[in-house]
Every structure is written in structure tokens, then in C-alpha cells.
Structure prediction request, 163 residues.
Amino acid sequence: MFRFMPRFMPYALALTCATAAPLVAQLQIGAGPTFPQGDFGDGASTGWMGMVAISPFALGPIKIRIEGNYGENNADASVGGGKFKMYGGMASGTFGLGLFYLIGSAGYLNADFAGTNEWKPVFGGGAGVGLGLGPLHVFGEARYLTRDNIDFVPVMVGVKLGG
Prediction:
């Protein structure tokens, strides 16, 4: 009997999550400036980043969010000019504190610059605010994200739909 348990564990976990946490199905769309930090700030100027995210589950003040990101920064002449592009995805957890929330993120971002593409882990955290204006829900958030030797702060503003 116990040798079949590992095969059924993912299904049991999914069933537990589905019954313990209500389905939120909230879509978020946002964009804003990114501010390079540290060594990355020495070779890149302020850029932009966009985000599309879905929050499938919530349990009290905690929400889980899966997001896709794409952004660009102009590279300074000191590093050869051109565009520095980042894209990828993250899983984030938010903890609501009334209008405000804390956010922690982990995932993978591809850094594309001068013909070099590298997928590496990204981690970060920050805070945000969410406001409901009738049927319209808006948010603003800032996070410090680090990926290998690339540190930056995206500031996102956008809308939340559903949930």
C-alpha cells in the first residue's frame, strides 16, 4: 500500500489546497519604471517593465500569484549601448495588511544583452497598496529584485480584475 503513496501525493496536495483555499482567479495587469541598482545601475539607465499575473488562491490575508514579466533598459555607451532585455516568470506570495501588502517573489528571468541570453534565478521582496474604486481595483507596488549580478527595483501600477 505504501509504495503507491508517492504517486498520489500531488493529487492529495492539490485537493487539499483546492478545498482549503477559495479560488480567487484575480488577473493583474501592470507596468512601470525599473530603476537599476548597484553594478547594473552603472551600465544601464532607468527602463520599464510590464507584468501580467494571476492569483489563483487565497487563504485569509495570504495570496499566491503567478506572473510573467518583460522589461527593457537602455545600456550606456560605457558597456556598448543597445538594449538590455529581461523576461521570465515568478511566483509571489502576498500578505495583506488592510490596504497595504507585503510581497515576496522567486522565479527565473532571462537577461538578453548583446547576443547573450542567460536564464538565472531571481528573488526579491517589497510592498504594495491596493485600492477598490467601485468595480475597478487598482494597485501600486515596488520590489527589490536580484538576479545574479543584476539588481533593480520595478515600480508597477495597474489594475486588478476579478476575485
User: Anything to note?
Assistant: Residues 1-6 have pLDDT under 50 and may be disordered. The domain at 22-161 is CATH 2.40.160.20 (Porin).
